[in-house]
């Protein structure tokens, strides 16, 4: 014999942001995404932010190959 009683679910509460705050969050997310894309996909050797240095490239080297970026 099974019970058909269900527990009441709490209604989802929407997140309400003001327009300036929403723009700030979206701009921050876009900046973080572009920075992540740059460091994983573009930064290497001659185009490095830190000069002719490959530390960032070596740090994300496996992630580059995993994501399909050409490397060498």
UniProtKB/TrEMBL annotation:
Pfam families: CbtB. Keywords: Membrane, Transmembrane, Transmembrane helix. InterPro entries: CbtB_put. The chain crosses the membrane at residues 22-40. This is Putative cobalt transporter subunit CbtB. The lineage of its organism: Bacteria, Bacillati, Actinomycetota, Actinomycetes, Motilibacterales.
């Amino acid at each position: 014999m099974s019970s058909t009683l269900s527990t009441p679910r709490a209604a989802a509460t929407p997140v309400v942001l003001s327009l300036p705050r929403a723009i700030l969050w979206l701009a921050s997310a876009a900046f973080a995404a572009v920075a992540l894309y740059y460091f994983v996909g573009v930064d290497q050797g001659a185009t490095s932010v830190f000069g002719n240095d490959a530390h960032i490239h070596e740090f994300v080297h496996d992630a580059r190959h995993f994501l399909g970026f050409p490397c060498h």
